[in-house]
Amino acid sequence: MNKYKIVLYLLSCIIYSSALFAENGEIERKQYQTIKAGPSSPVIDGILDELTWDLVEWGGDFTQRSPNEGSAPSQETAFKILYDNKNLYVGIRAFDASPDSIVQRMCRRDGFDGDWVEINIDSYHDFRTAFSFTINAAGVKGDEAITDDGDNWDSDWNPIWYVKTQRDSLGWTAEMKIPFSQLRFAEKDDHVWGIQFTRRLYRKEERSVWQFIPRDSRGWVNRFGELHGLKGISQSRRMEILPYTMLSAETFQKEEGNPFADGRLYHADIGLDAKIGITSDLTMDLTINPDFGQVEADPSEVNLTAYETFFDEKRPFFIEGSSLLDNSITIGDGEFSNDKLFYSRRIGRPPGYSPDLDDDENIDMPDKSTILGALKLIGKTQKGYSIGVLNAVTSKEVAEVDLNGQRRFIDVEPMSNYFLGRVLKDFRGGQTTFGGMVTSTYRQLTDENRDLMPRSATTGGLDLFHQWKDRTYNFTLNLVYSHIQGSREAIMETQTASPRYYQRPDADHITLDSTRTALSGFGGSMYLGKFGGEHFQFLVGGTWRSPGLELNDMGFLRRADVIMPFVWVQFRQEKPFSVFRQVYVNFNQWGGYNFGWETLFSGGNVNLNAQFKNQWFIGGGMAYNGRSLSPSALRGGPSLYFPSIWHEWFYMSTDNRKAYQLSLNLSHDNYTDQISRSYNISPGVLVRPNDAFSFSLYPFYNFNRNNLQYVETIESDPDNHYVFGRIKQKTMGMVIRFTYCITPDLTIQFYGMPFVSAGTYTHLKEITNSRAEAYEDRFYTFPGEEISYLEEDEIYQIDADRDGNKDYSFDKPDFNFRQFRSNLVIRWEYTPGSTLFLVWSQNRTEFENMGDFSFGGDMKDLFDVPPHNVILIKLNKWFSI
């Protein structure tokens, strides 16, 4: 029996044995009977006074879910449901004995602030997916697509629906009209849908539900109540189009002699988004020449590691429905949690090639790849197949270079096609799912750029999720594979890139091959866990990445060549006791190995998180990371041992219902070398002077002293020189936000982030024996007679043999980085689905190699930097055909 048969046999045993011990856990489901509206349908005005509402009975009898699970709610809630040929109508009466205490907080869509009521609709009736419609007492809408039985709530799903609210002497009411075209359901004569109602009583931070679901039960959608009586409804073939037009003006500093920097740039553009109902189950989204000028900028950072930073996706087209397409390899929030087959920010990325310029040359360099068009097909069939397809095409990008009027053009990014296909099948009422995913990247390379990147990249994955014993226990298996093809030079570049560094001289289990024109790898994860029950939960498993795994053409991979087993155990108390509302205590333990079975890292932590009855939060923990072996520290040189670290952290926040909220985050790292350490302080304040305006300040300060910070590799024969230094880095910044909601459809939002960071390097040294047992034997610190600094040229010279002649040199590594990014967005949804944006964004960025940190001086210098301003107006109009 080969190893593959053994794996399949073990998986079969797990599934079979779990089925033997399965408990049906039959739920006593509530039912609500609706009927078709009379001659006239309700008018959506928030007043439930139309006679047609009298055709159905009130539903109610809610149960408190938190904080006092199973108790009667403080205030009663009742609802009615009607329908006609095109819409579902929901009327909700939220009784309140103190109407003046109702919190009517104005916020943007999906703000979920203040008192609110919500209906979740499982129109597929698959016990795993649902559509959520929320309305707060001020009339602000929220909507989310629910997947994975409630584990994922996608607030970027924005259907077209209608709602009004009213406050009166009995409390407040909400009246909704939800078009069937915005839901997904099977074509049949008589429907049964899963439904759930939730109410939030803000002043008590109380949640009550219609269908009671204990907090220690596993899942959400599978336990909904039922809606009966929907007969003869159908979902019309839908087509929604959203054309846009955009005008923008940019101003920036004029550069004398640079024909590409005359200080002004004007741009006009048009594009189109569309939704097309392929079937009642499947919807296709299209975008042609999309523009995302209203999207908030990424946070500033100084990345001194060998690895790429993961940034969240913020573009609406790629966010909506992303839960189905997000095939993460590893769960949790650790170092490997962002590894995935599909990382949508690869589409429209900055060009992959930055050409070297000769003296006096100027360049007009594209800052991103233009997305010519993209389509996305997402849905779920009547037989339980979830389907996701995405295809996008980006254009070839060309940089224009000028030398005294002579122009040349350089290809910096090829025309590329990105494809993704995803299928997931439900079994046993959604308690078991099995799926697969494939991605393909193809680049139209020319002779000029064929050596810059792989021509094609394909990845695939299989995933199995299995639950038993009333969904309390689960087994998860994810397997992934990658294969890239390209020229020898392109594959050589991939082998020597930071995720793998095949050129490491001490890596005996991998081989650098300059003749390769393809590279393949595999990875995955496997877990056994318990999520449910009153107090204890656990997860035990592991994750792995082979040395040849490469996902970064369309996905994200931080590092390959690693195997990591781990254990997580949690004790939780979710019922109020003493001064606590809820308490969670977690224990984690992990280890890491490469595919040569060398230990890379090991550690563990214990942490506590608690909420008090006064709505304050507090938490903290302590972790220990043992001595680690870093394959990336020398950027392709031999692996380097780092000393062990103690890490402590603490956070607290006050009651977020109040007019002001305070928070504090502290963390501290202390290395056992007695030199390196870091700490971070991040206080915060959120102020709401009224229900329409909020303002927040989140300053932060970080101090980092690292005795082994990489500076540069000096290539030499026979041995390279790996230069390190003791960095003293100080970073300070602040995240500023304010939101003014004039109406639920007209809002003003501002985001700003001043950021300064300075690093000074001392005790410059060379790594001499990276794997030495004794810490001090791993490097040699240059004494004064071997190192000299040429201030005029800003370089260090090394005379290792002290013969008076320079052996090698390197640039001064000190730095001051200053950046300010801001967005001011006025958003007006002038009719449902149609929006006008007015945007002002500003960027100020400066880099100097001084290294002296002065918050006042750096901030003054930052705002002396000439700004790059963009003013944009964008108008789109929604049409339903």
Give the % helix. under 10%
The coarse silhouette is globular
CATH topology of the domain at 3-231: Immunoglobulin-like
| Strand content bin | over 45%
CATH class of the domain at 3-231, named: Mainly Beta
Q: Give the N-terminus to C-terminus distance in angstroms.
A: 59 Å
**How much is the average pLDDT?**
92
The number of helical elements comes to: 5
Q: Which regions contain 5 or more consecutive residues with pLDDT less than 50?
A: 1-25
Number of strands: 48
CATH architecture of the domain at 3-231: Sandwich
Structural class: mainly beta
- Sheet of most strands: 24 strands, antiparallel, barrel
What value does the Rg take, in angstroms? 30 Å
Sum this structure up briefly.
The protein has 881 residues and is mainly beta.
What keyword list fits this structure?
881 residues, mainly beta, Immunoglobulin-like, 24-stranded antiparallel barrel, nine-stranded mixed beta sheet, 5 helices, 48 strands, 51% strand, globular
Structure commentary:
This protein is mainly β and 881 residues long. Among the domains are: 3-231, Immunoglobulin-like (Sandwich); 237-274 and 822-881, no CATH class; 278-292 and 309-349 and 370-391 and 420-555, no CATH class. The chain is built from five helices and 48 strands. The protein has a 24-stranded antiparallel β-barrel. Strands 1, 3, 6, 7, 8, 9, 12, 13 and 14 form a nine-stranded mixed beta sheet that branches. The longest helix has 18 residues, at 3-20.
